[in-house]
Amino acid sequence: MKKYFVTAISTDSGKTLVSAILVNALQADYWKPVQAGTEQTDSNTIKQLLRSSHSVIHKEAYCLDLAASPHLSAKKQGVHIDLDSISLPDTNGNDLIIEGAGGILVPLNEEQCVADLITKLDAEVILVSNHYLGSINHTLLTAQELKRRNIKVKGIVFNGPLNEESERIILKHTGYTFLLRILPEKEINAFTISKYAITLFDHWYE
């Protein structure tokens, strides 16, 4: 079983979209260890985007009501997010796509952040970088912290309108493998996910 942890340079960068593509392409299981905000959970979104019955969507370790930083959401509910209590689900041999909450330094409690969870789970990172003014800086800072923590990175996914210069300079300075480019879509549905799942394999084994 291979474990891939999908994280991003900011909130709403497209982690759930990328996770759905990966689950589809690899026929993998999906798991969101910490969910903050229950109006529409990421697990439910994944269910709506997948057609395959092969993949299992595993229950969250923590499912918190408030859509906020996990440490704050947990505090509001009188809950302590304990990383020692978070264990990998049984995938019956399937690969596992793990979706993080926000970026790698988002706090889970007073001492630990998402990067600590990645290290505990010993997963390989897939970084999502969406294009906006300032995204180069945010991407390079994220890459620098991943390197400092000796966290292995499978590669990077770019999400948003084509920006070849941003992609070029990010790839040059990170040394990351380019995995996929997701362009703006009128609608995100199972067909869209399948389309990108096929494209993923153009670079997956590089």
Verbal overview:
The protein is globular and about 45 Å long. The chain has seven helices and nine strands; from the N terminus they run E-H-E-E-H-E-E-H-E-H-E-H-E-H-E-H. Helix 1 crosses helix 2 and helix 5 runs parallel beside helix 6. The strands form two sheets. The chain has a seven-stranded parallel β-sheet with strand order 4-2-6-1-7-8-9. The protein has a two-stranded parallel ribbon with strand order 3-5. Helix 5 links the parallel strand 7 and strand 8. The two termini are 19 Å apart. It has one domain: Rossmann fold, CATH 3.40.50. The relative contact order is 0.19. The chain is an alpha/beta fold.
Keywords:
single chain; 206 residues; alpha/beta; Rossmann fold; seven-stranded parallel β-sheet; two-stranded parallel ribbon; 7 helices
Q: Tell me the name of the CATH class.
A: Alpha Beta
Mean pLDDT: 96
- C-alpha Rg, in Å? 16 Å
Major pleated sheet: 7 strands, parallel
Strand fraction band? 15-25%
Order of helices and strands: EHEEHEEHEHEHEHEH
Q: So, the CATH homologous superfamily?
A: P-loop containing nucleotide triphosphate hydrolases
Which strand order do you get reading across the main beta sheet?
4-2-6-1-7-8-9
The total tally of domains equals 1
